[in-house]
Backbone:
C-alpha cells in the first residue's frame, strides 16, 4: 500500500512522460524532471504534492499531463505513474493533486537509465482471460501466453529496466496490456525476451501519418529478465563511451 511506504514530506521526482527528449553523448535519453515533496496522501491512488520551483520560480504543471513519479522514502526508492488532476493555492502554498495510474513498486536507481536504440520487436494485445490464467500459474511466467497468435511489428526506440518506448502503426488504448517480444545481444549472443507491458501513453507522431509512439511500463517482469535488460543497457553504454573516445573494442 502507498501509505506503508510513502509519507508526507518525502521527496518526489516528477519526470514528464510526454516531453522533448535530450540524448546525451553516451546515448542515454534524458527527460524534463521536476523535484518536489509529498504534501498529503488522500488515498491509496491519489496524493497531493507541492508544486515544484525552479530557480525560485513556480512551475505550473498542466492538468491532464502524465508523469513518471519516483518517491525517495525512508524505505527506499519507489516508482509509479501519475496524472495531474488539479492544481490550486491554499494557505499560501501551491499544490498539485495527482492520481496514481499504476501500482507502486520498489526499484533500483539504475532502472532510471534509458538507452536510445533501434530494436525490432513484435507485440499483441493480451486479453483479460489470458491475464487471469497467467495469474493462476504464477503471475509472470509468460510461457503460458499463446505466442502462436499473430504478432504485430514495431520498433523499440528506447528501453530501461522498467519500461520502453516503441513505434507501431496502431494506437493502443491507455492501460492496455500487451505481450512484448524482442531480442537483445548480450556478449555476442542473442537472447529473446517476452514480457507483459502496460500502455501508459500512445500518441500519433507529428509528420508521420499512421505511426504512433507508445510508452509502456513492464509489469510482472521476472527479475532475471529485468537484470538482463539492465546489463544490455550498461554494455551498450560502455561501447558508446569507448567509440566516442576513439578506443577500439
Residues:
Amino acid at each position: 500500500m502507498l501509505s506503508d511506504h510513502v509519507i508526507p514530506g518525502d521527496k518526489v521526482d516528477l519526470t514528464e512522460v510526454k516531453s522533448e527528449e535530450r540524448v546525451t553523448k553516451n546515448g542515454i535519453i534524458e527527460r524534463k524532471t521536476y523535484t518536489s515533496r509529498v504534501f498529503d496522501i488522500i488515498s491509496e491512488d491519489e496524493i497531493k504534492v507541492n508544486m515544484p520551483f525552479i530557480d525560485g520560480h513556480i512551475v505550473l504543471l498542466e492538468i491532464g499531463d502524465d508523469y513518471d513519479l519516483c518517491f525517495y522514502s525512508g524505505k527506499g526508492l519507489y516508482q509509479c505513474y501519475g496524472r495531474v488532476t488539479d492544481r490550486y493555492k491554499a494557505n499560501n502554498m501551491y499544490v498539485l493533486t495527482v492520481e496514481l495510474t499504476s501500482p507502486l513498486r520498489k526499484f533500483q536507481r539504475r532502472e532510471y537509465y534509458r538507452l536510445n536504440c533501434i530494436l525490432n520487436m513484435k507485440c499483441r494485445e493480451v486479453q483479460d482471460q489470458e491475464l487471469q490464467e497467467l495469474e493462476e500459474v504464477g503471475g509472470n511466467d509468460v510461457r503460458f501466453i499463446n505466442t502462436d497468435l499473430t504478432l504485430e511489428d514495431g520498433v523499440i526506440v528506447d528501453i530501461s529496466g522498467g519500461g520502453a518506448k516503441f513505434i507501431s502503426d496502431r494506437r493502443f488504448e491507455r492501460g492496455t496490456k500487451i505481450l512484448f517480444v524482442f531480442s537483445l545481444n548480450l556478449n555476442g549472443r542473442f537472447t529473446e525476451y517476452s514480457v507483459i507491458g502496460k500502455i501508459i501513453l500512445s500518441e500519433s507522431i507529428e509528420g508521420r501519418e499512421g505511426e504512433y509512439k507508445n510508452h509502456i511500463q513492464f509489469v510482472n517482469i521476472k527479475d532475471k529478465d529485468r537484470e538482463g535488460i539492465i546489463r544490455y543497457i550498461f554494455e551498450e553504454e560502455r561501447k558508446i563511451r569507448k567509440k566516442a573516445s576513439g578506443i577500439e573494442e
